[in-house]
Amino acid sequence: MELIPHNPGEGIYPATPDYVHAMEVRGASRLLFVSGTMGLDPAGTAGATLEKQLDLVWSNIRTILASADMTTDNIVRLTSYLRDVAYAEANSEARCKALGDRRIPTTAIVVQTLEADWLVEIEVVAAA
Question: What range defines the domain where residue 91 resides?
Answer without folding.
Answer: 2-7+14-127
